[in-house]
Design goal:
10 helices; single chain; six-stranded mixed β-sheet; alpha+beta; about 50% helix; 8 strands
Length: about 250
């Protein structure tokens, strides 16, 4: 893939992430490549489709990224992203206040994560097999995802305590992994992507931090939130597992 085609793939992913609609060559020329002719952009999009990075849902429609396209973006094109300073301060402040008040950390942190992301937060403890979620109703009501896939996701979340071991076995210590579509180790969420990392509290209790959502999620932002939350949890005496779900 040459540099121009890489730029086009990144542009398709950016535009599709924002709109959820197939992206056409005219949009790319106007917003991302004004110095490139429409014919050149159309030709590059055809090449990317032939090579499996893009997909055209309908003959008359634009293109959308494939799992292969997202994988190339995540491994090659994605830039590192950090939460804003305001977001970092807010996350630290809220967690410290929760610990000082000795409130139910898991339930309240799920709400905090949901509020920060505008999506779904889920928190659980491995030792007690307690899991808390916040925001799932909003996903079911507002998401543009296929209803069958949403039902499978909801069912997977209902039994997440039985599937955590699958994730832990697949994660290396201090490593963040991104699963796209069928790569997901949890059965039932192949229509989604997941960013996940393991952590260990100061008392030695292991856990994981994860983001799960449609494949058109903002991977760079979700990865940064997972890794920053992991840093916070690594400093706590004991906590458990935190999941964050984005859509």
């Amino acid at each position: 893939m040459n540099p121009r085609q890489q730029k086009i793939l990144s542009a398709v992913i950016e535009e599709y992430t924002q709109s959820g609609l197939p992206v056409g060559s005219r949009c790319l020329v106007e917003r991302y490549a004004p110095d490139v002719s429409p014919a050149t952009v159309r030709n590059d999009m055809s090449i990317l489709e032939e090579e499996g990075f893009l997909f055209q849902p309908h003959v008359s429609s634009g293109r959308v990224p494939t799992d292969k396209g997202y994988r190339f973006f995540v491994e090659t094109l994605m830039e590192e992203h950090e939460p804003t300073r305001e977001e970092q301060i807010h996350m630290q402040k809220e967690i410290l206040q929760l610990r000082a008040k000795n409130v139910r950390m898991a339930r309240t942190t799920a709400k905090l994560l949901s509020a920060l992301s505008g999506n779904i937060g889920m928190v659980g403890r491995l030792d007690r097999e307690e899991f808390y979620e916040s925001g799932l109703r909003s996903l079911l009501i507002e998401s543009d995802q296929n209803r069958d896939e949403l039902c499978r996701l909801a069912e997977a979340l209902d039994y997440i305590d039985e599937k955590v071991d699958i994730l832990i076995k697949d994660l290396g210590k201090d490593k963040t992994k991104i699963y796209i579509g069928d790569e997901n180790p949890i059965h039932g969420i192949s229509g989604y992507s997941m960013v996940v990392s393991s952590y260990e509290s100061q008392s030695g209790e292991p856990g994981i931090v994860a983001v799960i959502g449609p494949k058109r999620m903002r991977y760079e932002r979700n990865k940064s939130l997972v890794e920053y939350m992991k840093k916070i949890l690594n400093t706590l005496p004991s906590f458990g597992i935190v999941f964050v779900f984005f859509f």
